[in-house]
Amino acid sequence: MKLHMQILIALGLGIKRNGHIFLGIIGGIIVGILLHSHPNILASNILTFIGQVFIRLIQMVVIPLVVSAIIIGITSVGDNKQLGKFGSKMVLYYGIITTLAVTIGTILALIIKPGVGAANYIAENAASEVQATVAATMQQQQGNILNIFLGFIPNNPFHSLAVGDMVPIIVFCLIFAIALSKVGDVNRPIVSFFESVFAATMKITDWIMFMAAPGVFALTASAVSSFGIEIFSSISKYLLVLLIGFLIQLCVVYPLFLKKVSKVSVVMLYSAVTEAMMVAFGTASSSATLPLTIACCEKRGISHKISSFVLPLGATLNMDGTALLQVVAVIFLAQAYGVPLDLFLIIQIAILAIIASSTCAGIPGAGLITIALILNGMGLSPEQLVTGFAFLFTIERITDMMRTLVNVTSDVVVAAAIADNENEINYDLLNNPAAYEEIA
Ligand code: ASP
Q: Using an 8 Å Cβ cutoff, are 220 and 402 in contact?
């Protein structure tokens, strides 16, 4: 059977197991379209409220989960050499997948040329109400790349925890956990403490997932009501490039990658994590989906040692869907405004997209903000920058939902590949969907 058919069947199995979440997405799309054509403030407010309750509940567990997962993940590996091996493999695999995403996005955008002739359309549709915000964001993003990296080192980890600044939190946890694994048995009380924190946050995740279907329904409906379906006809070429790019990542790149580096069946893997993929689409946040991503992986065969280490890092640093969007968006604007795209500029865009995507947080809209980092060096006039960027804002949410699904899937793909390489995967469970524990 052809691979794409197998993938569809896998997703079908996952959806069947969790039909209510899928129905939530479909129902959300339908209600969103209706609300777009017949606005109703009360209904919109209720949907926003339900969606926010769901998002806030999962965000509530993200920080304790990430901190405890990294600390127990690293201390359970213990041995420095093994940790180095996991870590370097993770960086290599995430790097390969993101580079492929950027290459695919660039090639598609250069062939399909979504931006040619789009300048007037951009000017007419750039949301005027966001232009002031956009100009301020561009200003903020002008700091050089070294400053961005500097910001990764927390000068006060408690401040980072309080404001939910993920990268500095992760950096601190990594260093702290490595130190803990070096101090011998005195680390037991604190490791046991974090084991309890992890177990409790996973339990809370199980409870929150009872709200997954209404939550995803409300979030999807709110999002769709803000843009309607006309969006697909009006900027069809731009969305088409993104859609093709994301599908190539999901249906060609990940299957080939898994085949090359592991024995993991992409079909089984997708079927095991369908819930996380659907929630990623609904929430447009890798971080908010993280508790569910970990639950799907751990309950369906990928060891705790690997998932607790690779997935939290992936949810923050591995953003291949975002990187793909960023190259396409920047090339789109360059084509629209007639910036000549020579090889040097294309390579510059690609490298900056890899950096910008991995510095963005796993929250809605973060990937668009960091595009400013790339756009600033493109030679566009200040007015073009603001209008172009404001235009991207108007079609942001739908592209965010799609790229977040890709981001989360690639985290899982890399975790599964490393788990395979390190004999940390239970194939009897992964390859037997009938034995999967219910999650949502
Ligand atoms: N929303 C994306 C994520 O959470 C990040 C982005 O804005 O691209 O993965």
A: no
158-187: pLDDT as tens digits: 999 998 888 899 899 999 999 998 898 898
Q: Is 314 in the pocket of ligand 1 (CB under 6 A)?
A: no
- Ligand 1 lined by 362 (C-beta under 6 Å): yes
| E strand map for 23-180 | none
Using DSSP, how many helices (H) and how many strands (E) does the chain show? 25, 0
Give residue-wise pLDDT tens across range 237-261: 888 999 999 999 999 999 999 999 9
Pocket-testing residue among 141, 167, 322, 374, ligand 1, by greatest number of atoms within 8 A of Cβ: 322
Residue 193 CB neighbours (<10 A): 13
The dihedral over CA atoms of 180, 418, 61, 217, expressed in degrees to the nearest 10, equals 170
Closest among 144, 163, 58, 33 to 408, alpha carbons compared: 58
Q: What gap in Å lies between CA 261 and CA 274, rounded to an integer?
A: 22
Residue given tokens 């058919």 in the structure block = 5
CA of 181 to the centre of ligand 1 (A): 32
Q: Is the CB of 396 under 6 A from ligand 1?
A: no
d(CA 407, ligand 1 centre) in Å: 7
Ligand 1 centroid from CA 280, angstroms: 9
